[in-house]
What does this fold into?
Amino acid sequence: MSKEQQSGKRSIKIVDPPPGYQGEGFFLTTLDKVVGLARKNSIWPLPFATSCCGIEFMATMASHYDLARFGSERLSFSPRQADLLMVMGTIAKKMGPILKQVYEQMAEPKWVMAVGACASSGGIFDTYSVLQGIDQIIPVDVYVPGCPPRPEQIIDGILKIQELVQNEPLRRRYSPQYKALLQRYGIQTVEAN
Ligand code: SF4
It folds into this structure.
C-alpha cells in the first residue's frame, strides 16, 4: 500500500487552465479555448474493431494503461454519442459502406483514428478483398503505425487527437475547406444556422 493510500489522502490531477489573463478575482480567456479544453478531456471513442488490433485496444482500456486517465473511459457503441471513431483491424471492402455509414451517423465535430497497419493502409493484406486504408472512404485525422501497435502507441495517437481537438477553431466544420474535404468522399455536410 502506498504512503498516499495509508494516509487516506489522494492526489487528484486537475488540468491546467487555458491560456488567458488573470488577476485578483478574475480570469479572462476566449470561448474556443474553454470549449477546446472541455472537448479535449472528454473524448468518447467508438471502437470499430474487427481483428487483432482490437485486442491491443482492450489492453489500452484496461487497468495498466488505463485510458480513463485521458477522460476517454466512456466507450460509445452508438455513433450518435461518439466523438472519436477508432478503426482497428482489417477492413474488408464489403465492410467499407458500413464503416462509412457509422461515420456519417456521428455528430459533428468528430474525429477519426486509423489504428494499425491494416486500417491505415491494408497492412499485409494486399488482396482483392481488403480495403487499402480507410482513408479511401472516410477522412482520417491520425494514423497509428504498427502491426499491431502497442498500447503506448495507441495512447500516443489519443494525445495527438487531443491536440487537434483542443486547437480546432469553433467554425472549422462550417469552412469551405472542410466541406470540400467531405464532398471528396461524397459525404453531405451540415449548414450553419
Ligand atoms: S495491423 Fe496487424 S495486428 Fe492489426 S489488425 Fe492488421 S494484421 Fe492484425
